[in-house]
Write a structure and sequence with these properties.
Helix 1 (13-27) packs across helix 5, helix 2 runs antiparallel to helix 5 (148-159) and helix 5 runs antiparallel to helix 6 (165-185). The protein has helices at residues 13-27, 46-59, 79-91, 107-119, 148-159, 165-185, and strands spanning 3-8, 31-38, 64-70, 96-100, 125-129, 142-146, 190-199. It starts with a strand and ends in a 17-residue tail after the last strand. Helices cover 41% and strands 21% of the residues. The chain has a 7-stranded mixed β-sheet with strand order 3-2-1-4-5-7-6, sandwiched between helices. It has a single domain (3-199), classed as Rossmann fold, CATH 3.40.50.10320. The protein is of the alpha/beta class and 216 residues long. It binds zinc ion. Zinc ion binds at residues 9-10, 13, 106, 108-109.
Amino acid sequence: MMNIVAIGAHPDDIELGAGGSLALHRQNGDAVRFLVLTRGGELSDQSQREREARTAADILGVDDIHFLGYEDTRVPYNDEIIKRINDHLTAVNADRVYVHTEEDTHQDHRRAALSSIAASRNIDEVLAFESPSTRSSFNPQYYNSLTEDVLEQKIEAIRAHESQSEKKYLEAEAMKGLARFRGRQANTRYAESYQVIRIKRANPGAPIAHGTTQRP
Ligand SMILES: [Zn+2]
């Protein structure tokens, strides 16, 4: 069993970038936790965004969701946030962390990537996910093959973010197209793709238990 942590700047980022892979991790019996750096949007919508995030996490079968409470558009990249993320990863004994990519036009996503990567210095496996604001310089090297069921679960989790309703509907459709495109690159039907920040193995001859396209 692996301990998985996914770190997103806003409610919905994790579902968009890694929702299918995380649902697969749960199916495989791994523990999955969400760490969300902001509560998203204006102060008045925050409790709703947080509720939606919890619903989405439930749809994916996620064990735990934790909010760090930074202000939307002001996710920092400094010692304080790095220590807070690092403390969380240490407390849950993380084996693999899913993070934002730096190749993103949104300042929160970029700083979330930098802070998360610095905080994951001692984690064996760190993979960066894409988002709708990811730039074309995002070059994936790692793919998780998704079943149709898991892709549907991902779409449903994205739609749980109802307060963004119109946008969410389009995004859910786009996510299907993206999963098909990434699947084509990986010779499978549907996939999510990642940039490898680090994959560390104690023994290079050992089977890659979690690194195939069959098992996330
Ligand atoms: Zn975001």
